[in-house]
């Protein structure tokens, strides 16, 4: 153990006994995290002038997640080392002073949160979303503000400030709140805050309606379909894939044709491209099956992508995310539909509303959308159809 001068040694993380066997279904990292961890160092006792061993668990063993536990431990060792170098003494300085000195800044907290998700292998989109949300935190608060000093009223004021200034609509506001709840809960779990300022967050009074992902009207759908048929067969094909599968645009962009079974009439969405990281199967609509047969899908290599070619439709590349977006946007521009809130998701929503109106059961809509429960499907349809106007008279009494 290396000594620094005559006062103390460098803090060292102790992870308990060495793991020699791992139970089935577990990993060495998980089993090691179950051990009692502590941070150990020696500091010269001012009375005896002899090294005194100090061991701290600093709530370390309350953390169950291996990645969170490792991040917290590494951060604490670094902070304690800096603290000792700055002159801190465990014999003369109290714990309150120590807590104030090593309290984490907002910028460092965000860095640790991102490190955690990178270590966990979180989705790139999730990491990108939080990077975006964290930029608002850093813009509203100072980067060196201690996270333990951020209050509920400050978070409420920040959210309302951006709702007004950035025109955060319902979905954006809701997703931002969820991101900040998760962020401060993470800080609670690793002992950086005692109470989350989002625990008693004051919800805004007015719910603003989102203007994006609106459902196509029947008239606009016909216009869009006709325009694409004449001007952009690839974009038309991509919309047909979305319409018949109710899959997400990102899933259609990445789906290899080996997961499409024209004979058994089914499509498998593999976990590697699915948003929920689960492999799930949906029925292949007969009309979409005819489209695949017309493209001679069986003649392409199995690893080719169902939307991988602007010319052949099926190809060997995953086309850029903006490829279809820009093509559809040109259609909206030419038809003067840009102010209606239409996106690629509009076709999926339109498909589901038509299915429901044509007599599909909730269970069937749940299956095609891969919803986890019927209540999720009900809520989804309720949200889509909340603005439907009644145009027909009731049946005769």
TrEMBL record:
Coiled coil (residue ranges): none
Keywords: DNA integration, DNA recombination, DNA-binding
A UniProt-annotated Pfam family: Phage_integrase
InterPro entries: CB, DNA_brk_join_enz, Integrase-like_cat_sf, Integrase_catalytic, Phage_Integrase
Domain Core-binding (CB): 104-188
Domain Tyr recombinase: 211-394
Similarity comment text for this entry: Belongs to the 'phage' integrase family.
Protein name listed in UniProt: Site-specific integrase
């Amino acid at each position: 153990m290396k000594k620094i001068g005559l006062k103390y040694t460098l803090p060292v993380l102790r992870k308990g006994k060495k793991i020699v066997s791992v139970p089935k279904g577990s990993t060495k990292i998980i089993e090691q995290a179950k051990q009692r961890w502590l941070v150990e160092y020696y500091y010269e006792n001012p009375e005896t002038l002899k090294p005194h061993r100090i061991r701290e668990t600093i709530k370390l063993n309350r953390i169950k997640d291996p990645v969170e536990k490792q991040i917290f431990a590494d951060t604490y060792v670094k902070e304690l080392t800096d603290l000792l170098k700055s002159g801190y003494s465990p014999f003369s300085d109290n714990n309150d002073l120590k807590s104030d000195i090593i309290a984490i800044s907002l910028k460092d907290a965000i860095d640790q949160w991102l490190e955690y998700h990178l270590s966990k292998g979180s989705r790139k989109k999730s990491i990108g979303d939080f990077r975006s949300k964290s930029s608002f935190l850093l813009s509203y608060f100072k980067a060196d503000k201690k996270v333990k000093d951020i209050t509920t009223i400050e978070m409420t004021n920040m959210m309302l400030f951006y709702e007004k200034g950035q025109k955060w609509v319902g979905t954006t506001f809701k997703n931002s709140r969820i991101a900040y709840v998760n962020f401060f809960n993470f800080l609670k779990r690793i002992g950086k805050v005692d109470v989350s300022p989002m625990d008693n967050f004051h919800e805004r009074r007015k719910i603003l309606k989102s203007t994006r992902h609106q459902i196509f009207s029947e008239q606009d759908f016909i216009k869009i379909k006709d325009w694409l048929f004449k001007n952009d067969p690839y974009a038309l094909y991509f919309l047909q894939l979305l319409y018949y599968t109710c899959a997400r645009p990102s899933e259609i962009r990445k789906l290899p044709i080996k997961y499409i079974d024209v004979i058994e009439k089914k499509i498998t969405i593999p976990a590697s491209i699915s948003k929920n990281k689960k492999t799930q199967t949906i029925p292949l609509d007969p009309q979409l099956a005819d489209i695949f047969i017309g493209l001679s899908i069986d003649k392409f290599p199995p690893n080719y992508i169902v939307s991988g070619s602007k010319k052949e439709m099926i190809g060997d590349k995953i086309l850029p995310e903006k490829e279809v977006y820009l093509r559809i946007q040109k259609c909206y521009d030419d038809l003067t539909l840009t102010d209606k809130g239409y996106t690629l998701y509009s076709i999926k929503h339109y498909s589901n509303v038509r299915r429901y109106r044509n007599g599909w059961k909730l269970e069937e809509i749940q299956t095609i959308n891969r919803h986890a429960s019927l209540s999720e499907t009900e809520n989804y349809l309720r949200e889509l159809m909340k603005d439907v106007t009644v145009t027909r008279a009731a049946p005769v009494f």
